[in-house]
Structure formats: structure tokens, C-alpha cells
Amino acid sequence: MDLNILISTIITATAALVAIIGGFLVSRVITLAGEKQSIERRLKEIDNDLKIKTEMLENIENIILEEEINDFIIENCEDLITENKTPQELLCENDSFQLTEEDLTPHVEKLLSIKEIILDSIEKSGQFPDDFDDFVKNSGIKIDTNRTWYEAVYNTLLKIASQDSWNPLLMPPIHSTSDVIEYRDKRRERDRLKNEVQVLTARKIEQEKILNEYGKPTGLWSGLFVLIYSCIVGIAYPSLLLPYPEGTYNDEKTKWLLIGLFFSALFAIFAYLVISMYKLTQRK
Question: Residue 140: left if φ>0, alpha if ψ -120 to 50, beta else—which one?
């Protein structure tokens, strides 16, 4: 029995079906690769935006923290250097400050050291003028930073030394109108940055979830298995029989074996297509 025509037909038909499945898989791989690159690019942009917004948020939070600490020190200067109250006691008395004892302790220590510096300078110079600028000029004290703290401490000591002649106007104003407006603007900017960081973080999490899903594509490996199986039973094995030697094998059994293998490959291909179409049309 001459099976060469049957074998050639099986090889040609299987090759056509394999080409269809192969084209489908290649198209899907290219699509997934393009979408994955798009997600990775979008995720990189979100990471950059998140990094910038986080740095901006940290900077403005540090500025606000410094201003709140400065306000706390100025407002409670007398209690800190004369009453020896602790930051925790003052925070309990006034809950308007969003500070902790850990935030304030090193700065209170700095304030007390300023007090010692001013007292030592007064003792050495023997002068205690009513104006802070005159004191700085006469004593020759060097003030590198925290000038308002030095002035607040000096005026507090001056108040204690001359209770009867004390003039509250000597104390510098804690807040001017422009300072209050600027502080409110900073708080609004901080709140806005917090919201943006939260939104960007949520977007990053969602994009990472989507990106992880691309690492587990459904249907690709099963499609590749069907492709390999079809190539083996419909192309590779029949090709080994060409040219078919008549009378060498049991021609009848060989014929039905080839037909059975071809139909099994055909069934696998169509089953894969049906399952893929079903999954594609289902909405999660």
C-alpha cells in the first residue's frame, strides 16, 4: 500500500494548523511584551514622581517641624528657663503643638545652654542693658544661629531682674501676619503632598499587581505544548516515514496510526482554541 500521498497530506495539513497556532502564540507574546514594557515604563514614571514628591514632603515636614519647635521654645521660654518645666509638662498643658518630647529635648538643652552663655556674659561684662542689641554689641557675644532664642532668653532674664519696670513690648512678636499666612501655606502644601504621595503609592501597588500578572500568562504554555505535540505527531514522525517503504511495516496499522495521530493533534488544536476563546469572552 502506497502511503506517501497520505503522509504528505497529513504533514501539509498539520503544518498549516501549526502555522495558525504559532501565529496566534507569537502575536500574543508580542502583545504581552509590548503591554509589559508599557506597564514597566509607567511604573518607572510613578517611581520617579513618588521619589520626588516624597523628598518634597520630607523637606517641608522638616521645615514645619523646625518652625513648630521654634514657636514652642519662644512661647514657653520663661517656663523652661525659670520654672524648669519639662517639655512633656508643657505639651500636656498645651496640645496645640504636634510635637513629642523626643523632638523637643535636644532643643530645650540648647536653650538652657544659651541661658548659661548669657548669664556668664552678663557676669563678666557687669552690664545688663535694656536692649538686646546693646547687650550683643557690648558683650561681644557671638551668635551664629538661633538669634531669636538668644533674644527671648535675654528678655526673659531681663524681665525677672526688673519686674517693676518690665515692658512686654520688649519681647519680640512670636508671629506676624505674614508668618502666619506662610505657615498655613506650608501646612496646605504638606497636606497636598501627602495626598499625592498616597495616590502615587496606591497607583504603584496596582501597577505592580498588573505587572506580576504578566509573569503568569494563561494559555501560552498550554499553546506551546499543543504546538510541540502537533509538530511531533503530525510533522516529525510522518516525515521519518518518507519515502514510505512498502511491505516493510504493517501498512494497515501504519495508516490508522498516522490518521489517529493526526486527529489527536487536530483535537488538541481545536480544544486549545475553544478553551482560549471561552476564557477570552468571560469577564472576571
Answer: left
Instruction: Please indicate, yes or no, whether residues 80 and 163 belong to a single structural domain of this protein.
Output: yes
Total domains present in the chain: 2
Question: Within a 10 A sphere around the Cβ of 169, how many other Cβ atoms?
Answer: 7
140 falls within a domain? yes
* Residue numbers of the domain that contains 132: 76-174
260: its cell numbers = 489517529
Query: Which amino acid appears at position 11 of this protein?
Result: I
User: Could you tell me which residues come within 8 angstroms of residue 230 by beta carbon, excluding any fewer than 6 positions away?
Assistant: 14, 17, 18, 21, 265, 268, 269
Q: What is the model's pLDDT at position 93?
A: 82
Report which secondary-structure segment, H or E, holds 180: helix 177-214
Of the pLDDT bands very low, low, confident and very high (cuts 50, 70, 90), residue 177 is low
| Domain presence at residue 66 | no
Q: Which residues of 52-71 are buried (b: 16+ CB within 10 A; e: fewer)?
A: ebeebbeebeeebeebbbbb
Tens of pLDDT, residue by residue over 65-123, are: 888 888 888 888 888 888 888 888 888 887 777 788 888 888 888 888 888 888 888 88
- Checking if the pLDDT of 261 tops 60, the result is yes
Whether the Cβ atoms of residue 6 and residue 252 lie closer than 8 Å to each other: no
More confident residue, 60 or 132: 60
* Residue 89 and residue 138 in one domain: yes
Asked if 55 and 63 count as a contact pair (C-beta separation under 8 A), the reply is no
82/163 same-domain check = yes
Whether residues 82 and 169 share a domain: the answer is yes
Find out whether 47 and 204 touch, Cβ atoms under 8 Å: yes
